[in-house]
Design goal:
About 20% of the residues lie in helices and about 40% in strands. The protein contains three helices and eight strands.
């Protein structure tokens, strides 16, 4: 399975995924997010001072799990995240990457939303499970390992 197939499977499941991060205290945090792809980078709009941003500053490793269908199909993805709050990135991502209106969450747009940031997730590995794995499990790794 290649990364494009993983992206297609995730898109067929739900626009929502659950993002897991780990804080400096070693404790996990899981929140629902609406990630969107730009090439092979997965982006999430976040608050620059959010728990997610603080956790990434401490531990950049993350995991996502897309909501499972009634048939039990699911996608999990692991990667490395970085926080981007610079104006150039905000302007570039504000239109054309996300499939929803970012102004609903940051009405000041990229220029007047100082607490808005974006999380870039570089995928390292992923897993697609058909029917909770009973229909097979299919893996992708960035390094090509099985």
């Amino acid at each position: 399975m290649d990364l494009q197939e993983i992206k297609d499977k995730a898109a067929a499941l739900s626009p929502w995924a659950h993002l897991a991060t780990v804080g400096a205290d070693g404790k996990p945090d899981v929140v629902p997010v609406h990630p969107c792809w730009e090439g092979d980078v997965l982006w999430v709009m976040i608050g620059a001072s959010s728990v997610k941003a603080r956790n990434i500053a401490s531990t950049p490793d993350v995991a996502l799990h897309w909501q499972v269908t009634e048939a039990g199909d699911g996608v999990a993805l692991w990667g490395t995240a970085t926080v981007h709050d610079d104006l150039d990135t905000k302007r570039r991502l504000w239109t054309g990457v996300f499939d929803y209106d970012l102004n609903l969450f940051a009405p000041g747009g990229p220029e007047q939303s100082p607490d808005t940031a974006f999380l870039a997730i570089e995928p390292q590995r992923a897993l697609y499970m058909a029917a909770y794995g009973m229909g097979g499990t299919f893996r992708w790794n960035a390094d090509g390992a099985a």
